[in-house]
Amino acid sequence: MAYVASFPYLAFRYREGLKERLGYYEKLKESPLWVHAVSVGEVQAAFPMVKAIQGGGNHEVLLSTITSTGRCMARKLLGDSVRLVYYPWDVPWIVKRTLDRVNPKAYVTVETELWPNLLYELKKRGIPAFLANARFSERSFRKARRHREFWCSLLDCFEKIMARSEEDMTRFLEIGVSSEKVVVTGDCKIDALLARRSMVDVEGLRRSLNPEGKRVLLAGSTHEGEDSVVLEAFSRLKDKVRDVRLILAPRHPHRAQKLWEEAKKVGRAVLLSKKEPDWEIMVVDQVGVLFDLYGIADAAFIGGSLVPKGGQNILEPASWGVPIQHGPFMDDFGKVSRELIKLGCAKVVKTAAELYYEWEAVSNEGAAGEIRCPQGKSYVEGLGGAALRNWEIINKSMQG
Questions:
Q1: Catalytic pick among 42, 226, 280, 316
Q2: Domains contained in the chain, number
Q3: What predicted TM-score, i.e. pTM, was given to this entire model?
């Protein structure tokens, strides 16, 4: 009933693709393999798996997202090779209408995107469902344990749950999922990073944004409460080190205008969309460009780590061999951050002074633009292969 009461609001907020969100899809000539990825991060995780599906047989792929930014990322990565739709609202009659029209041969959802009505209806119709790149954060796990019966029932709808790590698998098992259903396959986002890295024109980016060849420090996916720390550290640094620049990329791009105003108090600040020359601070006001920008960075601070947000994706800069700084809150990437610290590729900072110290050290060593942490780059490359493993499991299950 809550959905019915909020339909006017939902219809306004999600007016783009409204017909599809209501389950009005065009009927396809043949049953597709339906892959669901809610937004940008999940699309990036799904991307290499979709490529593996396309390379492993004659399967039409229907890729659904909830957000328009996720849809844009899917179009950027996969072009016209998949059918893109918006995900239906999880209301019984909308779900039934959707499955009547789509009639998928299988359904694959990525990471933690679980919608009960759809999953129960898939099971009722005998359509196999899979959870790929499955993860269970500590916070979600604690909540799930309080409602164990519900979660067991919901997760039992999946033929296979393909977990990112042993830790994730252990949490699924502790909730009560059968050990026969859960397998560790690794993180598909590693494959996505490696594939996307090969697509980036790094030299073109340097010519466009940093033709003078200055050192570039990057603060990626920052949250409120972190930007002031980053700007303070850079303000101290640019008074001591010549030819250094800062790229500041907020986690939520709508904050870019406000950050630009703050950055102008520290130095010559511009917006990425304007690409003005002779800048000291560039504020990123576009979506889907951060990973590429890590390719021209000499050091990278990871946002969501000075405030308790779990940390953003530390693997992105590591895949480029970039030295990393992050705060103490890296719960979502705890194992990876610990490994990178052991390798000497990551340092923990808690204050602007500590970030300044690390950035000063990087700025006074080696040449601008060189790969400083090849061991971090190799570490990430050694984690690949999850996408193909996921597809092999899905394909084998579909064939009985």
A1: 42
A2: 2
A3: 0.76
